[in-house]
Design a protein that fits this description.
about 600 residues, alpha/beta, nine-stranded mixed beta sheet, about 40% helix, WH_DNA-bd_sf, WH-like_DNA-bd_sf, methyltransferase
Length: about 600
């Protein structure tokens, strides 16, 4: 890489940049600033962002020769020279990746001197400082970074970071051209950071936006990091916010490598052998896991690019993201890694067959359909059920849905009943019954799944309040108060969906509600996990994802009416339906 060496004016450039950032923070507020960052933002979307987000700080990267010089720069800009500092791991690692340096060479500090807005609002300038002594080997980095301003950003703090609201704010940003650009959870501050790259036509000299939410929002963070339109850190030969087409295509083509690297990481039990606090030498990890040291180092370096592990001077450390692949961690996603790197990985090799014929590639590869194949192999069936449960964070907010809450609180001689149709291993029903001790449950499933659900619900203490029925969709039990179809309809074509919904409608009393949990295809073509799962369903089961209007038509064909829908984690939604023509009662039951 060729960079330009600094000249004698660059120290003054740092002061000018710091002074400009402080002035920017003093003069701007959320309502005026957001349309500059996201051209075309107005109306309800602007009101939602400005109503939930407070402009908090402007961030920039400085290169003082030493600590005294940084204090002098602060003094020249009217900032507190005694502002405390602490290490900035994120920016240090980004610099190391961009410039091919050992992170240990880069002592990046973070300082947040206070700045007040025009109406006295408490804000800050977030300064990342890398000391660059004269004639040191770090001068080319300083020269390049001053020109490109990769770390310059504007930060907004979410004032009431409820999970659904936070996901909605992220969706608005993406809808108006911002691209997910990493983030993280800081346990020391108990805060979650979501980064975005701003659109190229933003009317502002900042390329990135930070959304900061107090508290642990790692479910939202995981969806943000997995976003299909995620922007990876730029390389030295690319302008911020852009990649060369060939580089973009190479990143896309190597996606299969990432799937297998994560699956191998899980299969080798490496996450369970690693620590999230202390780095371990590759040789020690190889002995503990029975792997080849040099080959293991190659795998771990690759996984470090995606944040599953962190490479430090002492060796490799497991990150919070990588810890999701531990076998015993709550909400473990290890079963998903084994499924996506196993049977579903093989089936995607026949995707061209599915696209050419409209028939699932899974059937062609394995000689039978997805459900029969898994049902005949108890170990594989158990892994599939575990993989479905691994996405249970999708429906964690469901017990607070107004329909569930109303059923739990309604005055009645007998407790209200929630019927989980094709309820798998009982994960969702157990969640609802645990949250509402006065509710009863009924779970309908295939015989082998019923036994697994019985064990799970007994272990959760919900068994005495739950009944079980082995059967198919034609056996939906009547008389329930709330019926749940979670991730069922996307497995089937429209005709089968109508049939399933008719079975539900026939079983539902006039007062009953139906909740359908699915991912919804966006109507505007914006990036969504639903789009990825639409391809997955085509390839593996012959089903599909659908939009809200499509589900409304299917419900209407079954004599049901879509009342509304609301978002859930992992790009899911819960659709609320009732029998058509039945007025909404004041009380759910009498």
């Amino acid at each position: 890489m060729t960079t330009t060496l600094p000249d004698k004016t660059l120290l003054l450039d740092d002061i000018a940049g710091l002074r400009a950032a402080a002035q920017f923070v003093r003069e701007h507020d959320s309502v005026a600033l957001l349309p500059l960052l996201l051209p075309g933002l107005d109306g309800p979307d602007l009101q939602a962002l400005a109503g939930h987000c407070r402009f908090a700080h402007a961030g920039l990267l400085l290169f003082p020769p030493d600590t005294d010089s940084l204090r002098a720069q602060f003094a020249a800009c009217g900032l507190d020279v005694d502002t405390p500092s602490h290490p900035s791991v994120v920016v240090r690692d980004r610099l190391a990746r961009r410039h091919g340096r050992d992170p240990a060479e880069l002592d990046v500090r973070i300082l947040r001197p206070r700045v007040y807005g025009s109406a006295g609002q408490r804000r800050a300038v977030e300064v990342f400082a890398l000391a660059v002594p004269p004639h040191s080997g770090l001068e080319p980095i300083a020269a390049y970074e001053r020109t490109r301003r990769h770390e310059a950003h504007l930060a907004f703090e979410v004032e009431r970071p409820e999970p659904l609201a936070l996901r909605g704010l992220c969706a608005i940003l993406v809808r108006h051209g911002a691209r997910p650009d990493g983030g993280g959870y800081n346990p020391h501050e108990d805060g979650t950071v979501l980064y975005f790259t701003l659109p190229a036509d933003a009317a502002c000299d900042y390329g990135r936006l930070e959304l900061y939410a107090r508290g642990d929002h790692r479910d939202t963070l995981a969806a943000h990091l997995d976003h299909p339109d995620r922007f990876d850190s730029p390389r030295p030969d690319a302008r911020p916010g852009a990649r060369q087409p060939a580089e973009t295509l190479l990143h896309l083509l190597t996606g299969a490598w990432t799937t297998q690297a994560l699956a191998a990481f899980a299969r080798l039990d490496l996450p369970d052998a690693m620590d999230t606090r202390t780095a371990q030498r590759t040789e020690d990890l190889a002995r503990a896991t029975g792997t080849h040291p040099r080959s293991l180092a190659t795998l771990l370096r690759y996984l470090a690019m995606f944040g599953a592990v962190a490479e430090e001077q002492e060796g490799f450390r497991l990150t919070e993201l990588g810890a999701l692949l531990r076998a015993d961690t709550p909400g473990s996603m290890r079963p998903l890694a084994l499924m996506y790197g196993g049977p579903f990985y093989r089936s995607f090799g026949g995707l061209d067959h599915a696209v050419r014929t409209g028939q699932p590639a899974f059937d062609q590869i394995f000689g039978e359909n997805h459900f029969d194949h898994f049902a005949r192999d108890p170990q594989l069936a158990s892994l599939f059920d575990q993989s479905m449960a691994a996405s249970s964070r999708m429906f964690r907010p469901l017990p607070t849905h107004p329909v569930i809450t109303a059923a739990a609180q309604a005055p009645a001689a007998a407790p209200a009943t929630v019927v989980d149709v094709a309820g798998g291993n009982g994960e969702l029903l157990g969640l609802i019954l645990t949250a509402h001790p006065h509710l009863r449950g009924v779970l309908l499933e295939r015989p082998h799944a019923v036994e697994a659900a019985r064990r799970r619900l007994d272990a959760a203490g919900c068994g005495p309040r739950c009944a079980y029925r082995s059967g198919d969709f034609a056996d939906v039990p009547p008389g329930g108060d709330v019926y749940v179809l979670s991730r069922v309809l996307h497995d089937w074509d429209d005709d089968r969906c109508r049939e399933i919904l008719r079975h539900c409608a026939r079983a539902m009393p006039a007062h009953a509600d139906l909740l359908v949990v699915e991912r919804l295809l966006p109507g505007d073509g914006s990036p969504s996990l639903a789009t990825a799962w639409d391809l997955h369903m085509l390839c593996n089961v012959g089903g599909r994802e659908r939009g809200a209007d499509h589900y409304a038509r299917l419900l209407a064909d079954a004599g049901l009416e879509l009342v509304g829908h609301s978002p859930l984690p992992l790009d899911a939604h819960v659709l609320h339906a009732r029998r058509a023509g039945v007025p909404e009662p004041v009380l759910r039951r009498t």
